[in-house]
Amino acid sequence: xxxxxxxxxxxxxxxxxxxxxxxxxxxxxxxxxxxxxxxxxxxxxxxxxxxxxxxxxxxxxxxxxxxxxxxxxxxxxxxxxxxxxxxxxxxxxxxxxxxxxxxxxxxxxxxxxxxxxxxxxxxxxxxxxxxxxxxxxxxxxxxxxxxxxxxxxxxxxxxxxxxxxxxxxxxxxxxxxxxxxxxxxxxxxxxxxxxxxxxxxxxxxxxxxxxxxxxxxxxxxxxxxxxxxxxxxxxxxxxxxxxxxxxxxxxxxxxxxxxxxxxxxxxxxxxxxxxxxxxxxxxxxxxxxxxxxxxxxxxxxxxxxxxxxxxxxxxxxxxxxxxxxxxxxxxxxxxxxxxxxxxxxxxxxxxxxxxxxxxxxxxxxxxxxxxxxxxxxxxxxxxxxxxxxxxxxxxxxxxxxxxxxxxxxxxxxxxxxxxxxxxxxxxxxxxxxxxxxx
Length: 438
Fold this sequence. Notes:
The protein has helices at about 1-5, 10-50, 60-70, 100-115, 170-180, 200, 215-220, 225-235, 240-245, 275-280, 290-300, 340-355, 420-430, and strands at about 75, 80-85, 90-95, 120-125, 130-140, 150, 160-165, 185-190, 210-215, 290, 305-310, 315-320, 325, 330-335, 375-385, 385-400, 400-410. The chain is α+β, with helices and mostly antiparallel strands.
């Protein structure tokens, strides 16, 4: 083509050029009109978008949102609207949460139908920090029939007044695996029954005719207090126990857009041996945590040792459609190494296979749930705020890359109505299995 054009006579070149100019003149008008039309349409689209969606920018920080939510009155559920300070004025805003609607509704229904005196469940996506469900229940047997609005910081899934009980054995096990090279098969010698804790059994390391040994795997699954008390005294000591408590969220604030109370594990630097034994085994009311923190403990272990900051609010919109908050990717930090996390998951699996949750999870590894990887840790202790027997299950479920970490808590004064492990199992199945398989 290039050779043929170079061979044109000059007159032919001029004619071709004039023809080309006329062609461009013919194109100018339609293109100009088209540009004007498109500009108008785009402007109209932007104007319409600013009314219905708003610019995607944040004006509230995560901390400011948590503070505003802590003061928002709530009924049975979380607040749907919020008063925010924006441009010097108090403005009403609506909240969009991150919850998995099917799971949230199922959890609320489970708590309502089983009706424990008190109950709570928190579930998170361990890889993103997205809060999948957050439920709180108080039976009318123990509270006034007339619901009065309360602040969100009284939500049971966010309160940290509950003794963590044997859930703290997760901290102890992770610490001794990481710092002392214990494995699931490491055996510990002890005397006494599985669920008692006496000084004469813990504070001596001399074997006698009643001494027996148990692997860390079995001691964890069966929640043997004496084994973990001895680990705290003879293998760890105060400093590692306090360090790993902090790594799992105790004694520090939890970065979140929710007003979650910090858990506590007071382990003084000069703690005596008995204090260490009580703390390490969880046989104390001094160690406390919230269900949301419990879900984060499990999340860190199923997420290869990384704990992700939990976020429950997707966005906040003013009445005119302007976005004043948009969820950003969560921060994370290393709690334990991927290798330690893998060994901890091995211990947690044993809990549902042969340990304290084996009855609840009977048949779980057959049929429709056979492909689900699940594990957990139970805990029980009598507490006073509120009064009753506390029953914990902290655990995880995973299926084909989809994961859930959760903590369930029920409190019963006189009569047991549902185990926390049963709530957790049904929540895992609801989230991981398609509707047609459940």
